[in-house]
Write a structure and sequence with these properties.
This protein is α/β, with parallel strands linked by helices. 38% of the residues lie in helices and 17% in strands. It is built from eleven helices and twelve strands. Helix 2 packs across helix 3 (94-105), helix 3 (94-105) runs parallel beside helix 4 (145-162) and helix 8 (260-269) packs parallel to helix 10.
Amino acid sequence: MMDRPRRLRRTPALRALTREIQLHPSQFIHPIFVHERDDVTPIATMPGVSRHSVASAVQQAHEAHALGIPSVILFGIPDDKDEQGSGAYDSGGIIQRAAAAIKAAVPEVTVIADTCLCEYTSHGHCGVLREVPGQTGADAWTVDNDPSLDLLARTAVSQAQAGADVVAPSAMMDGQVGAIRAALDAAGYAHVPVMAYAVKYASAYYGPFRDAAGSAPSVGNRATYQMDPAGGYREALREARLDAEQGADTLMVKPALAYLDVLSLLRREFDLPVVAYNVSGEYSLIKAAAAAGYMDERRTVLETLTGFRRAGADAIITYHALDAARWLRDDPA
């Protein structure tokens, strides 16, 4: 007798009945760029994404909640930057004000704060920059790891004080999760989880984000602290294990699309929730292809997000979140 797998693909109802992977808005995290201005400014390199005022960020959170998306992640864009990134840990900083406003207006939404310095430093790096003696060119500058830990810890505490439900350290400094966990606990925020950017690569896919956040490095490069794309599985496991041992509550892989094998590896090796970051370049590539008529945007986005889930992601940070939630609501098949 011939096996006939096609029997279970014959109708939408049969396909839905037998699906192993389910995609739902509750798995999405909606990113919001918040700037100091009172307007909404479209981002040219990320069609459909804008820099928002605090009031508009609140509206975005309302919209996400109405679509069944439970979480937002905030990225701040300050007017003033300095070498220490002091706006990141200022109690009146843009992320702090946005987090407080969203929690006051939509308390059901989980507010995640990106915990980094790159959007706030005048040089665009994720920590305190120092010159390397005897080096020239891009290698003449590096981020001084240990002094940066104190600033990251201060940032996390400030964000928690403002009402952030989760802090998400993304600087890739050695020991950052441990420093942040200790600082949160000491300040009375033992209940605030740490969503660790555990496996974060020095990727070409971040280009549109750096335009959106104004965080392109002015000197040096981030390859001295972000991971080598060819680093392999041992490096990924080591980074994830260190964050888990230091108290991370979730582990993130960034970017997601080119690193599905790494995402799957973390799912097998760790019992913590795993987050996929569907980054700006991945988003903009699909937008550009769809605008040119090369691809069907809805089908491509949902297939991509389903791929993240199949690889093991429990949650997905994606700039497609609002659109994907609408598509799933209006036409779940």
